[in-house]
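Sample intake sheet
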Amino acid sequence: MTDDATRPAVVAPTAVDPVARALSEVAGGPPGRHARPHRWWSPVRVVLTLVAVVMALSVVHHVPCLDTGWASDQARYGKGCYSDVPYLYTGRGLAEGLWPYAAGEGEESGGRYRTMEYPVGISYLAWGAARLTQLVAMDGPSLAERRLADPASVWGMPGMGTETSSYFLLTAILLAMCALGAAWFLSGVDRRRPWDALLLALSPALLATALINWDLLAVLFVAGALWAWARGRPGLTGVMIGLGTASKLFPLFLLGPVLVLCLRRDASGRRDLRPFGSALVGALVSWVVVNAPAYLSSPERWRVFWVFNADRGADLGSVWLALTHAGLEFTPGTINTWSWVVFGAVCLGVAVLGLVAPEPPRLAQLGFLVVVGFLLVNKVYSPQYVLWLLPLAVLARPRWRDQLAWQATEVFYVAMVWAYLAGYLDGAVEGQAPTYDVAIWVRVLGQLALAALVVRDVLRPARDPVRQDAQLISTRSNAVAV
C-alpha cells in the first residue's frame, strides 16, 4: 500500500487559479485548511462523472431535432442541434447494413450510395453502431426491403424515423464512452494534476459540439497518446497516434513534436532518437492494420477520403471562405498549395521553438501549436473541429480564464455557423453574411491568442502554469514543514 507521504501532492485548481476559486463558490467554495480527500470521490471519479453529465446534457440539447425527426431547419439550425449522424445513417447505406467498403456499393463504383468520406476508423464506428442498432432497435422494414427501395426513399419508410433516432442515441452512448476515456487519459498525464481534465469535462465546446460527428473517437486516441508519452511508453504513444490517424488526420501531426522532443539534448548532452523510432513504428503498424480491411475490400473506396479532401474548395469556417466573401477567388489547387506551404512554415517554426526553448516543452504544448496551425489554414473548419484542440489545449495552458476566453470564441462561432446555415444572416449586405465572416475571424483570433500564451510559456518557462503551480506547492509545503 502506498504511504500518504510518498504520494505526489495533487494541485487543486482552487489553490492556484483565481478563476477556478471564484467559480467554486457555486459548489460551496474552495476546500478549507483542514479538508481531507473523500474516500470514494477521487479527482478522476469526479471528472468522469461530470463528463457523463455534460454528454447527457448534449443529448438533451438534441431533443428538438429528435422530436422533429431531424427534418426541421428551425430545429437543427435554429436550435443548434444538427448532427451528421442520423443523415448519414440512411445517406451512406448504413441503414441497409452495407459494409462501407464493399466493392461496387458506392456511387464511385456505380452503386447505390456515396462512399463514407471519412477515414476508416470513423467508418467502422458508424457501421458497427448501425449493425448494433439493427440488432436491438430495428423499427423499420427488413434490410431486404430497404435494399429493393430507391435509396432516396429509405429515410421516409415506415419506422425509419424512430430507428434513425435510435441510431443517433446509440452513437451518442459510444461517443460518450470516447469522452470518458479521453478524460481518464488526461487526468493521468500528470499524477499531480488530475484536475486539469476538469477543463475538458466542463467544456462548453464539448457540450455544444460533441455529437455533431464522430470526432471524439480521434480525441480519445490523442488523449491516449499524451498519456502514453507521459508514462515513458513511446511505442504505445505511436500506436495511439496511428489509431487516431486512422480516425482523423490531425493526430498524425503529433509525430513532429515527438521528434523535436527527442532531438533535444538530455542532461548528458546526448540526443536519443530511439523513442521517436518506436513511436513511428507503432504509428505505422497500427495505421496499416486498421486500414487493411477497408483497403483490401475496395482500394477505390478507401481512397475516397483522400480524393474528397484534395478536390474540395473553400468551405465552412475557413479563412479561405471569409476571403472569398471579401471578393478574392481561389481554386482548390491554389488553396491546397498555400495551405501546405503555410502549414509547413508553422511546423518549422514550432520545431525551432521546441529546440531553442530554455526547458524541454511538453508534448501538449507543441502539439497544440501544430494543430492550431493546421486548422487556421485548412480549407474547412466544421464546428466540431474545436474538439481536436481540446485535449491539447487543456494541458498546454491549464488556466480557467484562458480556456474560457478561447472557448467563448469557439461557441460564438458555433452559434453563428448555425445561424448562417439557417439563412438568418443572408442578405445582410448585398447577399453576403458579414456577421458570419466576423465570427470566423473572432474564432481565428481566439486560437491565435491562446497559441501566443503557449508560445510565451515555452520561451519563458517561469510563466508556464504547470511549472508555476509546482513551485507554489513546493514553497507552501516547505513553509508548512518549517
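Comment: The mean pLDDT is 89. Residues 52-474 form one domain.
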